UniProtKB/TrEMBL annotation:
Its EC number is 1.5.1.21. Homodimer. Keywords: NADP, Oxidoreductase. InterPro entries: Mal/L-sulf/L-lact_DH-like_ah, Mal/L-sulf/L-lact_DH-like_NADP, Mal/L-sulfo/L-lacto_DH-like_sf, Malate/L-lactate_DH-like. This is Delta(1)-pyrroline-2-carboxylate/Delta(1)-piperideine-2-carboxylate reductase. The keyword Thylakoid does not apply. It holds the Pfam family Ldh_2. It catalyses: L-pipecolate + NADP(+) = Delta(1)-piperideine-2-carboxylate + NADPH + H(+); L-proline + NADP(+) = 1-pyrroline-2-carboxylate + NADPH + H(+). Belongs to the LDH2/MDH2 oxidoreductase family. Gene3D superfamilies: 1.10.1530.10, Hypothetical oxidoreductase yiak, domain 2 (3.30.1370.60). GO terms for biological process: proline metabolic process. It comes from Pseudomonas soli. GO terms for molecular function: delta1-piperideine-2-carboxylate reductase activity; protein homodimerization activity; pyrroline-2-carboxylate reductase activity.
Amino acid sequence: MSSPSTGPVVRVPFSELQALLQAIFARHGCSAAVAAVLADNCASAQRDGAHSHGVFRIPGYVSTLASGWVDGRAEPQVTDLAPAYVQVDAKGGFAQPALAAARALLVAKARTAGIAVLAIHNSHHFAALWPDVEPFADEGLVALSVVNSMTCVVPHGARKPLFGTNPIAFAAPCAGHDPIVFDMATSAMAHGDVQIAARAGEQLPSGMGVDAAGQPTTDPKAILEGGALLPFGGHKGSALSMMVELLAAALTGGHFSWEFDWSGHPGAKTPWTGQLLIVIDPAKAQGQRFAQRSRELVEQMQEAGLTRMPGERRYREREVALREGVGLSERELAELQTLAG
Ligand code: NDP
Ligand code: PYC
């Protein structure tokens, strides 16, 4: 995870940042409902120190909306497909409002059947994935989500980029603790972190990507300008990335990461793909025991010497941000205020 941009830091109350981002989304072509959902998502990422998908993304959202590539006023169409299957056509809009529109039906189905699937297609996802799963665990449910993005990753053993950075996020309740959450790109690095490193003039660790000639490079600009990322963990990360393409695109009816052409929309940055969520109600088989068993697992991991759980850094940053305000550079705040008009 890259650090925030350098320069003097100002601290803004979370609700003020939400309101500022909401004003930007509304001013640049989103309906009030979409603006509220996206602002909450992006402000939450900034609050939790998830900088690759916090306010860093706002210029990309704005240029994409201006290009006409995404419909900020789209009204998702929810279909109750089967006892445990909900489908949403996001109508060329963002994935998060599509999830919001289907959420109550999805949870009701998961509680009744013990498991339910939400398949979103015709959607744009430009954000961190954990905000899509963590709230389910807050309600005692287990959630898994995958989303595919845009071609920039060479499959293990292949010659040219094909996959997206294709993240996987998972959340589970844990008795007496914040939910257990992990959220990770299946590429060696998120594309956003490569952009942040390029902007900061930093080199990357080795093994992240290749240049335009297919040669290993630590230069983020070489990866962004004609090069590509690698999957994490060689053939294993590559297999997970392939799975994400299958579940988020082939299964939902969305585009594969290489299937959309945004060249006619200069400024477009948001991948037009699909997203899958699987929600399980552990109470169906385990009663209240699952959260207790999660706790036992965490305790055993700690006993084994683990000092940092996935998600823990975010929770720590969240606690500080809610107490002292969300950290932004002075320049970022000024840019946001300009965009909000
Ligand atoms: P990271 O590699 O930073 O982190 C991945 C996970 O590992 C997080 O849950 C993190 O927890 C945890 N973690 C990190 N370091 C440790 C450690 N030392 N010990 C234990 N756990 C650790 O994430 P990525 O760079 O892979 O992805 C960043 C973001 O980019 C994600 O939110 C992802 O959803 C997003 N993304 C979005 C895409 C899209 O198409 N919308 C595409 C690709 C990525 P913690 O959060 O607490 O640091
Ligand atoms: O950081 O890889 C990334 C990414 C792709 C789409 C949105 N974020």
